Amino acid sequence: MGETEVPTTSIDIRKNEKNGRLKALDVVLSKAFVQVPHKLQNFLKSQFRRLPKADGVKTVSSVPKKASSLEVDLEKQMQAWRENPSWDDQTPHIKVSVPKGSLCNLSVNVNVGLPPDAVYNIVTDPDNKRVFKNIKEVISRRVLVDEGLRQVVDLEQAAIWKFLWWSGTIAVHVLVDQNREDHSMKFKQVKTGFMERFEGCWRVEPLFVDEKTCFPYKPTTWADYNSHTGGKGRIGSKVSLDQLIQPSIVPPPPISWYLRGITAKTTEMLINDLLAEAARIRGELNPEKSDKEVEMSEEVLNQVDNTCNIKERWAMHRRNAKQCHRRLPTAR
Q1: Neighbours of 190 (CB within 10 A)
Q2: pLDDT at 45 (0 to 100)
Q3: Where are the domains of the chain?
Q4: For position 163, what pLDDT does the model report?
Q5: CA distances to 97, 169, 227, 282, 299 from 183, in Å
Q6: Buried-most residue among 70, 96, 183, 289 (CB within 10 A)?
Q7: Are 133 and 265 in contact (CB under 8 A)?
Q8: What residue stretches are annotated with the DUF220 domain (predicted)?
Q9: E strands, the chain, where?
């Protein structure tokens, strides 16, 4: 009595409209919340990308180079070295130049008997102080950016130095931008101290070791090389290291001459340690054929050490001078 009846159909329609609005609102909110982490992640990535630029390290170009386009299968390449581990290490080629206002600029080139990825693993290994004898200890290591193939690492090491009869350690704090896509590793000093500038770059490029078997065809890609060698062709590495060294105060000659020689010697020891580690890895691949190769490699490295030792060269110079003086005829 006196009460109006509301049709149930109209109530259902209102509920459906309300539910539809809630669902639409829920979809909008869910999309918004989903986008927030992505936006935050992109913002953080953009900030980290600016970090190397702020510290003076150039970012690696995204344009793929020849080494990355080869897409070398490391396991297949290591199998080729297992079947044929023969390799003769050569003396690294070191070029020393003196830019204005700096101590020296070193450019080193050497061929290594291992695929680029294997060599790159040695150079970028966080525990590579077991390989490079001039690294006394790793004080700290922090990964600032990790994009899979590319990493930016804040690294501080204690490096061993030697000058004539004196020796000691010096802390080296660098920012390292390593990119496996093109097998490059750039480094630059973070804080200035004893060294005003210390920067450089490692590069590892592919070397077709058995390219002669493809004659007269000259392969330009790993696929062509692998096809023409029947999958037996080994691929090595062309390793280059360029570094600029500038102390806070560049000493005058002859001290600067000694320092350049010591710096070149230290860099050469670094490369020789890399060659020794490559020989050890090849030895593990084929122990039966490795003993002779390791002996030959050590003999070559010892010859280099003997001829490049500064103190020994100075002693030889004095001995030769005395012998020359004794051979001179006496005046009558």
Answers
A1: 16
A2: 47
A3: 81-133+183-282
A4: 62
A5: 25, 29, 24, 21, 30
A6: 183
A7: no
A8: 167-238
A9: 93-97, 104-112, 135-146, 150-163, 166-179, 184-189, 195-208, 235-247
| Model pTM score | 0.66
The structure tokens 């290291």 sit at 241
The Cα 167–Cα 164 span in angstroms is: 8
DSSP per-residue codes, 273-318: HHHHHHHHHHHHH-HHHHHHHHHHHHHHHHHHHHHH-HHHHHHHHH
Q: What are phi and psi of 254, to 5 degrees?
A: -90, 0
Quote the CA–CA distance of 189 and 80 in Å, as a whole number.
39
Report pLDDT digits (tens) over 284-300.
Answer: 877 765 455 445 455 54
Q: What is the pLDDT of residues 227-271, one digit of tens each?
A: 999 889 999 999 999 999 888 888 888 888 888 888 888 888 899
Domain 81-133+183-282 has CATH 3.30.530: yes
Question: Could you report the per-residue pLDDT of 85-106, keeping only the tens digit for each?
Answer: 999 998 899 999 988 878 889 9
Q: How many residues would you count in the chain?
A: 332
CA 219 – CA 216 distance, rounded (Å): 10
Residue spans of beta strands (DSSP E) within 8-148: 93-97, 104-112, 135-146
- Alpha carbon distance 112, 107 (integer Å): 16
Cβ neighbours for 208, distance < 8 A, ≥ 6 positions apart:
214, 219, 225, 233, 235, 236
